[in-house]
Amino acid sequence: MKKTTGTRRKSTQALAALLVGLSAAAPLPAAENAQGPVPTTEEFVGPFPSWANVKTEFGAVGDGKADDIGALQKGLDELRKEAAVRKWFALYLPAGAYRITAPLRLPRAKHHEAFCVSIVGEDPERTTIVWDGPAGGVMLDFGPWYASLSRLTWDGRGKARTAIDWHGGFSTANEIRDVTVKDVQFGIEGGHMGTAGIAETAVTRCKFHRCSKAAVSLQNWNSLDWYVWDCLFEDCHLGVTSEYGTGNFHVYRSVFRRSKKADISVHHTLYFSFLDNYSEGSGAFFLGDRSPSWKDRHTHAANMTLQRNTIVNPVNTACIRVRNNGMLLLLDNVIVSREDAKRGPVVVHDCPGTGDCVAIGNKFTLKHPLKIEERSLLVDNQTVDRASLRYAEPKLPATPAVARRQVFEVAPGADAAAIQKAVDEACAVKDGKAVVHFAPGRYSVNRTIVIPAEHEVTLLGDAIGEATQIGWTDGRSGPVLRLKGPSHASLEHLGIGGGKSVGVVVEVADQPGGYIGMDGVVAAGAEYGVVIDGLDETLVEMRNLCMNGLKVTGGPRAAAGGQTPARVNIFQGGTSRDKGLDNIPAIYDVRKGGRVLVRDIWYEGHGTPLINIDDGEFTYCSGLYAADPEPMRMDKMNGRLMVGQLRGSGTSFVGDPAKLKMLLLGFQLGEKDELKLDIPAEAPIGVLGCRRHIGEEGTATLDNRGRNEPDFVLEMLGPLRAEKPLPVPEAKSGVTRLLLRRVGTSLVIQGGRREP
Is 476 exposed, middle or buried (0-12, 13-18, 19+ CB in 10 A)? Predict the structure, then answer.
């Protein structure tokens, strides 16, 4: 079997390049109609003078009649230039209908071509690329990396094959945000077989209408770590899939309407998670197999997690079907079958002789809903009367509105004094919501820039990474940027740091109701990319993260054994660490009552131990550990640990059984690996549904061992079932609300008391 990991490029190289020079499930919602989107606290500010306007700079018309292919292509040609000689890093399309008769092209042949770029429309409701070329054409032939594509509509008019064909050289750290695609065969193609892959790419708040083959299609061994958030899929053949090639992805909080074949399907084996989605009237919700034919059963394993999804009136009664033998984890899903359906099964997991399934807390409206042929743990699953359920299609978040904020421009090359002056002037604005905008360039600072407490000022660049780099030049340790707490600041599209200096320090960050949100952050430090110290109250939530290490130390109450609201939750991302950075105990280091949840995270890099727990709590669900040549180690494990749906190389666990409570669920070992774990009698340690790869033969079962009774499993899965991504709150007086989006930095978050 060909390895799903392929010849994947280590993301640490990209991290280094970026910073050079610088409890139980939630109840169903009350029934209501989804009339319109939910407003979001996020805002859109722009355009800025440093953005290239396609009308004023390149002569685009945007009236729906003129052929704008030449003008738009000129803009893309500028973005393709090597970063050192490029004039623009952001291309802006004002409202209009831009008719094109040939493919737009942004390829990349050299390392720094099309690197750190942004393509931004004014608003997807009023800014449209319209295909008027030959049938079967590609609208955008795309190859950049560290790229952002946002606020545009792509209209294939029933003629185009693909709206966005993302392929070429290996690409990573991308986002497609607030984009609408309609009337094409493929909305997004992520790589092609035989070429390089596209990895670590977020698809957020996008809408896909009438994609006759697939809305999002991954098609390469290294098209991995795609993160789909808050998207709408309407009348597509397939919503998100790897059927036309292979790849790995996760889908959160999205809505599917009337998918003809299925909302989600996979044809190869890695790890996949689908959380908090809503489906109505689709052929099926999820089809999981390797082969194009359902008749070709096999024993290769994929870890698949389906949690808190609501599936209404699927065309096929068996709306979830899996024919590989990896752990199928079903948590708190609700499946409302058609009224004319008489009986199940609703979920079919039928790879004979080898299947594993854990199903907990699911609700069905048909009797005999589960067809599970082999090893399983079934707890608290119910068949209920359809009329007793209250469900509704959720309202998806809206595209951020254009905000008219006062903007303070910082010229390229400005020093620390000039930057601090702009920050102080922005903080003096009456409503406290001004923007400090950095034009592309390098900014060398020799003293720390300070943002005072409780000012909703935004520091904003044009694109992540090389576009705007604020680097440290002093011999001391910095930091480059200090946020006084409670902080209400926002940082976007910036590179902050360099050398041994810490990029950002957040002070006095711990208050009841506190929230620190990170989206698309690339966090690389000399030791840890992110350090969190002393929080008892504040929630830290990270999405689509790339980092080289995390250290979490609980606050005073947590360290004393008290229950606290503080938690660090990571949803989707990748981690990596280079050889030579061996001065940390583990990639994840949790101490003194710290609590960490990690979901859908890939690790690839040097063989540093993965997890260290010293009197803390760590939950890791769905991921892969690919370290060459070292085996995975989890050292000094004294606390509570749940590792589920993780695939790793040979593994050893070192801990004191008297101080360790642990569940290994759906863990997969390599072909020559051993699970080195001693379980003393009566120890609160369990091994459930784990497997070993055996080459072309697929996988073989490992014996269930230790504590596997339902009560123990439910206890250990508690954080996994209780924690979910939250909407970003409004800023409140006296409470931390800090946002970082697409920032490259190292980050230290500190609790503590506010200065008098």
Answer: exposed
Cα 52 from chain centroid (whole Å): 29
Encode pLDDT of 215-246 as tens digits. Answer: 999 999 899 999 999 999 999 999 999 999 99
Phi-psi region of 636 (alpha: psi -120 to 50; beta: other; left: phi over 0): left
Contact by Cβ (8 Å): 324, 290 = yes
**CA 756/CA 753 separation, integer angstroms:** 9
SS3 715: helix
Task: Let me know: does 683 contact 712? Beta carbons within 8 Å.
Answer: no
Task: Report whether pLDDT(296) > 50.
Answer: no
Helices (H) and strands (E) in the chain, counts: 6, 64
Taking the C-alpha atoms of residue 737 and residue 455, their distance in angstroms, rounded to an integer, is: 10
DSSP string, 650-664: SEEE---TTT-EEEE
| Model confidence pLDDT, tens digit, residues 676-692 | 777 888 889 999 998 88
User: Rounded to an integer, what distance in angstroms lies between the CA atom of residue 317 and that of residue 265?
Assistant: 16
Q: Which two tokens stand for residue 242?
A: 């790897």
The residue with greater pLDDT, 658 or 424, is 424
With CA atoms as reference, report the closest residue to 167 among 204, 212, 121, 222: 222
What type of residue sits at position 80?
A: R
Task: Give the whole-angstrom CA distance, residue 736 versus residue 446.
Answer: 27
Residue 733 has pLDDT above 80, yes or no: yes
**290: pLDDT confidence band, cut at 50, 70 and 90?**
low
Per DSSP, 697 falls in state G
What distance in Å separates the CA atoms of residue 519 and residue 39, rounded to the nearest whole number?
Answer: 18
16, 9 in Cβ contact below 8 A? no
Whether 83 shows a pLDDT value over 60: the answer reads yes
Place of tokens 């950095």: 438
DSSP element (H, E) containing 211: strand 207-218
* Distance separating the N- and C-terminal Cα atoms of the chain: 64
Three-state DSSP state, 285: coil
pLDDT > 80? residue 631: no
Two tokens at 718?
């508690």
Please choose, from the candidates 46, 15, 63, the residue with its C-alpha nearest in 3D space to the C-alpha of residue 150: 46
Contact of 652 with 631, CB cutoff 8 Å: yes
Alpha helical stretches, state H, 201-243: none
Q: CB within 8 A of 563, min separation 6: which ones?
A: none
Averaged pLDDT, 562-577:
94
The C-alpha atoms of residue 99 and residue 123 are separated, in whole angstroms, by: 17
* pLDDT score, position 294: 41
The answer to whether the beta carbons of residues 187 and 181 sit under 8 Å apart is yes
What does the chain come to in residues?
756
- The distance from CA 689 to its chain's CA centroid, rounded to whole angstroms, is 26
Contact 265, 238 (CB under 8 A): yes
Three-state SS at 157: coil
Partners of residue 240 on adjacent β-strands: 216, 264
Task: Give the Å distances, CA to CA, from 93 to 2, 18, 68.
Answer: 43, 27, 12
Q: How confident is the model at residue 756, as a pLDDT?
A: 40
Q: List 117's β-bridge partners, or say none.
A: 147
The secondary structure of 727-750 as a DSSP string is: PPPPP-TTS-EEEEEEEEE-EEEE
**pLDDT bracket for residue 8 (50, 70, 90):** very low
pLDDT tens-digit series, residues 304-344: 999 999 999 999 999 999 987 779 999 999 999 999 999 98
Least Cα distance to 552 among 633, 636, 611 occurs for: 611
